[in-house]
Amino acid sequence: MQTAFFLFEVAVFAPLVGFLVAGCFGHLMGDGAARFTTIGLMTCSALAAIGVLGFEMGDVGTFVVPVVDWVHAAGFRADWQLRMDMLSVSVVAMVTVVSLLVHVYSVGYMAHEARPVYRFFSYLSLFTFAMLMLVTSDNLLQLFFGWEGVGLASYLLIGYWYDRPSACAAAIKAFVVNRVADLFFLVGISLIFIRLGSVSYEEIFAAIPYHVNDTFALFGTHPLYEVIATLLFIGAMGKSAQLFLHTWLPDAMEGPTPVSALIHAATMVTAGIFLMVRMSPLVELAPVTRDLIVLVGGTTSFFAATVGLVQPDIKRTIAYSTCSQLGYMFVAVGVGAYQASMFHLTTHAFFKALLFLGAGCVIHAVHDEQDMFRMGGLWRKIPFTYAAMWIGSLALAGIFPFAGYWSKDAILEAAWMSDSAMGHYGWVMGCVTAFLTALYSWRLIFLVFHGKPRDAHLHDGAHESPASMLLPVGLLSVGAVVAGVALEPFYIGSHQAAFWNGAIAAIPGHDVIERLEHTPGFIALVPTFAAIFGIAVAYVCYIASPGIPAALARSLRPLYLFLLNKWYFDELYDVAIIRPYRAIARLLWKGVDEDVVEGIPEGLARLTAGSAGQAVRIQTGSMAVYAFSMLIGLVVLLTTMLFFR
């Protein structure tokens, strides 16, 4: 096992070394050496992670790899340790492989960047390391360290083009929105420590059976685990861009496309899913919170899909599909199908990275243009990218035998087989979303690659991307084809119990994964029929009769504007939160800070200076004036004494 421990440490810390070397010495090494260093270390990390996965597949179990003593304060203890079980090892393998491909892709994509790019590659490695720290944590404090680390790295990468006001605003928005959710997460961690006595996973899970009937008084009396699970879920909502806390995700597209691929496929947004699965022993005992998770996840899937129908920007369309797919994963968590959630998280990493990197190839081909309505007829110009986008879209839509078919259908089957009203709600929303997903995915393909070129200049100058960009796209295409069928037996199939080996908890008798094989045939086929119908509708609207979308937009203009403006969430938050906050801030700034806090000392200073100026006039230096003043004073004093005698 020492070999496995060593490989695990290499997988986790190699990206950190890459970040430090490229970030601290990149200006001395130059861009070429910095790229080589970060990619070389990411290669070591990915190979080591695959090696550890091989060890864990041998039914090794759960181990803790000590790193360093960390926080010891009174009764609080949190050491820095790496938890090595199948949940963490599988995610580490996925993160490192996808991140390596994104690093390689960035060589070509950032080749024409005017400024030095060593910072960019160092930030990519930092992002990867922070995510690895999150998923390998052995306690909630260590997880929170990685949680905040991915938030910092996302801020740096989304705002990488800091000379663009829109990129800076998007970076700040992502950082602030996530801090709102993180407050609830931090309160949840604190409550776990106060009531369960530890932040270590093993100690928390061991203490759970002894506090099942505990309550917490907050606006009434509530079951303790419901309160904790809800607080953790709100934290997860922020990271995973669920409804009400989703507004940062589309704006994050202001960063370079490799950043979008890394955020949406392997880091950041998957952190919320991982948190809920890691805390599955606690979430299992919070049925009300699980219903809330299904409600939010199902509604988010539908919401994001409707917005994706009308977006003109190629990257934002794919971004909303991420938001929608994360909703599926939360539905799986809510019905207790944690294995299916992790399955979809893994397959989604391949085909979503593929779609984003494919979109990057399109953007590269048309000289940084992202408006799909200025493209068209590109399939002959960039055939490799065209084929890759078809593969990614087939996987996203859940068409057999592509990866998304195995994992997304498993989630919908689990929702139906949960035999709960909220589970059926998740199934209905998921099936409707399957139709909408196929519709907007082929809308993208038909607008970008088919029809007549809408901008002759862009079309004539279009060209295929360099090999450094196409190689990762090709490898991800293979993953999008085979990942589902290859992983299905282990994640949710006949070998799932031995594969997870206790890393994911489920109450005996309530494990919905065990009932998937009994799903009615019609129920299992509905998502596939919905996806095929969506593709057919897209063909009719954008190939056979391309005037239909414009006619619908005119006839249903209020609905069209409602969707185009993303259900007006940003405008609502602007009126309800941002403007009142600015007004209060201005009042405190001008009225309190400047007029009172600064005004009183400044007023006293002016009064003192004025009084001193008047007093100076009394000091004339004339003995006659002084004697006369003393005489007047003496007369006043004697008069007063005689009068009051």
From TrEMBL:
Residues 137-436 form the NADH:quinone oxidoreductase/Mrp antiporter transmembrane domain. It comes from the Bacteria. The chain crosses the membrane at residues 6-29, 36-55, 86-105, 117-135, 141-162, 174-196, 216-238, 259-280, 292-310, 317-337, 349-366, 387-407, 427-449, 470-492, 522-544, 624-644. It is a multi-pass membrane protein. Keywords: Membrane, Transmembrane, Transmembrane helix. It is found in: Endomembrane system; Membrane. One of its GO terms (cellular component) is endomembrane system. GO terms for molecular function: NADH dehydrogenase (ubiquinone) activity; NADH dehydrogenase activity. This is NADH-quinone oxidoreductase subunit L. One of its GO terms (biological process) is ATP synthesis coupled electron transport. Its main location: membrane. It holds the Pfam family Proton_antipo_N. The keyword Transport does not apply. The keyword Lyase does not apply. Residues 70-121 form the NADH-Ubiquinone oxidoreductase (complex I) chain 5 N-terminal domain. The lineage of its organism: Bacteria, Pseudomonadati, Pseudomonadota, Alphaproteobacteria, Acetobacterales.
